[in-house]
# Entry
Amino acid sequence: MSYIDQTLCTGCKTCLLFCPDDAIDYHDGKSSIDPKVCTLCGCCDDRCPSGALQPLTELTDLQIFQQAFGNPRGSKVTGGNAGRGGKEIKTLDVKPTLKPDHISICLDMGRPGVGLYLRDAEKIITALIAVGMEFLEGDFPLATIIPDRTTGKFRPDCLDLHMHSLLAEGVFHKSKLPAVLKAVLEVSQEIDTVFCPGLILPVDENIDNEALRCLDDLGIPRPIRSKINVGLGKPYPPDLSKLPPL
# Structure
């Protein structure tokens, strides 16, 4: 995260060109960063021709979390993935994390240029957990601010944090799909950001799955695009402890 040294700012507005979140204001010939809107993405770093953009040297734990997800170059916090973190979806065809008769869901919240506040992310996650979604096993980036996975409630002190975007993944029995979709429709009317849920499930040669028929019952259009893992990977054994050492 940076701040703008007002004694060095010449009012050239160069920094405004690099901020994807409109977090830099311009008044009376000077630029300044709104800390409530800034996502700590670092896109404006080293962009000021007069050197007015200065880095903050001491960050709180929440600012470090925010910076890790906002940095387009990725970080250790996000598992090495740039931005939002999460990679379970891409490996479900080789990892024994998706049980038979279960469906996984990807909760893609916010977008650079739109952003989201964590209070909206909490609304989405708690709504789906209430109807039967569970987090996939193992560590995931959001775990650092969700102390209780059974409720999905976030740390109270982080709800006003502004983020580029977030990604969370959950799983539920296929019989709960209608309730999950209804919850998605309801919570989408309560949030102030963009929200793209994605279903992860096996399909037949016609790109169909019996569970998807509830989309028709609920009046939800069938998806016209998808990402397909073609199953060329060698599946991990159910007992991961038996994997050979790297």
